[in-house]
Amino acid sequence: MARRKGLVINDEQMQMIDGVLTKLQRVAGSAFVALISTSGQPITTAPADVDADTLSLAALAAGSFAATRQLAEVLNEREFSLLFHEGQESNLHVMQVTEQILLLITFGRDTQVGRVRLYTTRAVEVLKPLFEDAEDSDEGGARTIDTDYSREAGAAIDDWFPGESDK
Predict the structure, then answer these.
(1) Do residues 79 and 113 touch, judged by C-beta distance below 8 A?
(2) CA spacing 20 to 30 A to 36: which of 7, 44, 84, 140?
(3) What is the CATH number of the domain that holds 115?
(4) 166 inside domain
């Protein structure tokens, strides 16, 4: 069971989360996808290998997102839930999943931004209930996903990422 400050994720939930990230990476044409806490701690990544650059990216993206929250406040916006950086060779898309969780995705110039936004939004729709459940659980009794929810979520993932279930 993975534990983060105020966050409890059981093995079944982590497998589902990793599956969503792997599919998202594949359908969006991404080099790297990560879920991080708003404090900059990586939760999980696709691909799974984490190096020093990944840790730096997580911390910097969380800091950038915190600054974006302050910008929203100055502009009297409730929030900005998305951050996008465009570079010469690569792009970074950061989207808020829950109050504590951010989704990072990197992709090259040859990948369409709209495609990334579409699939990232769909992935967040699947991930959000999992993390809200994990954030709400108490330390002593982590909530688990029941079999019906797992089946329905799996079907939803397959519907949102068509043609990817056999890969």
Answers:
(1) no
(2) 140
(3) 3.30.450.30
(4) no
Question: What would the pLDDT profile of 107-157 be if each residue is shown by its tens digit?
Answer: 998 999 999 999 999 999 999 988 887 666 544 434 444 555 555 666 666
Residue 57 within any structural domain of the chain: yes
The pLDDT tens digits for 33-87 are 999 999 998 899 998 876 768 888 889 999 999 999 899 999 999 888 889 999 9
Backbone torsion region of residue 9, taken as left when φ is above 0, otherwise alpha when ψ lies between -120 and 50, otherwise beta: beta
pTM, entire model: 0.76
State which residues form the domain around 109: 2-160
The closest of 50, 46, 49, 26 to 111, measured between CA atoms, is 26
CA-to-CA distance for 135 and 143, rounded, in angstroms?
Answer: 10
Total number of domains in the chain: 1
